[in-house]
Design brief:
By secondary structure, the chain is of the alpha+beta class. It folds into two domains: 37 residues; 164 residues, no CATH class. It contains six helices and six strands, in the order βββααααβββαα. The strands form two sheets. Strands 1-2-3 form a three-stranded antiparallel sheet, with no helix packed on it. Strands 4-5-6 form a three-stranded antiparallel sheet, with no helix packed on it. β5 and β6 form a beta hairpin.
Length: 236
């Protein structure tokens, strides 16, 4: 395996952890970092794997509820709204869009608007912690007397690329319970949006809705005709 700009500096291992040292060289500096192939406790700890699976499943439910809230507020056909929402990958962007849509939705009461925005903001605030559990690798600390499980987290400072944070099935289950509460909150917010939308439909007049604004410019035919006449009159 080769890495552009990297030179293999050495391979060593202990306690079931294989570490590979790379040297990154440039005209100005040369430094070393470690890439570790860690023993994966998820393969051997059933309770840990079960807790992660439960967290992943509950987060998927939360994501679905956020999408349904977007569909309700967008006032687009459901299929078009789903397509539109699928392009907003970042959770922070989803939160911003739904917040702005809620602000622009005049058929929501202030309390309903606050409920919906608060639920989606709660979803956004928990996304970083969820990503940490799902995306960062787990390892077994061979230096601890009880072979403690840890979660590796990127370090932005210092010589080490990753730091070790405590991890256990109990910690993951506790966070998964928070997500279960979040799903219930998002579901209630979606029901609020649906009920408000149904209320709006009942209040709409049966006849044609009068225009509340107009553009004070000539019709397109008159405008184009005027421009054409002006162009022709300017020819020599």
């Amino acid at each position: 395996m080769s890495f552009p700009g990297f030179g293999l500096g050495g391979v060593f291992g202990s306690g079931g952890i294989l570490s590979i040292r790379f040297r990154m060289s440039s005209p100005l500096s040369s430094s070393f970092f470690l890439v570790s192939v860690m023993a994966n406790p998820i393969e051997s700890d059933f309770k840990l794997a079960l807790a992660l699976g439960r967290l992943a499943g509950r987060w998927g439910q939360a994501e679905l509820m956020v999408e349904l809230i977007y569909i309700a507020l967008s006032e687009m056909p459901a299929r078009k709204a789903t397509i539109s929402f699928s392009f907003h990958k970042a959770v922070a962007t989803q939160n911003d869009i739904i917040s702005l849509l809620a602000d622009e939705t005049d058929w929501l009461t202030d309390d309903e608007r606050t409920e919906i925005k608060g639920a989606v903001k709660d979803f956004s605030s928990k996304s970083g912690q969820r990503n940490g559990w799902v995306h960062y690798p787990f390892g077994i600390d061979s230096n601890s007397p009880d072979a403690a499980i840890y979660k590796a987290k990127r370090s932005r400072k210092g010589d080490s690329l990753y730091s070790k944070e405590p991890a256990s099935a109990e910690l993951i289950r506790a966070f998964a319970d928070q997500i279960s509460t979040l799903v219930a909150r998002l579901s209630a917010a979606h029901s609020t949006a649906q009920q408000a939308s149904a209320r709006k439909l009942k209040l709409q007049p049966l006849g044609p809705t009068p225009l509340t604004w107009s553009l004070s410019i000539p019709s397109s035919q008159g405008l184009l005709g005027g421009l054409l006449s002006q162009h022709l009159s300017s020819d020599p």
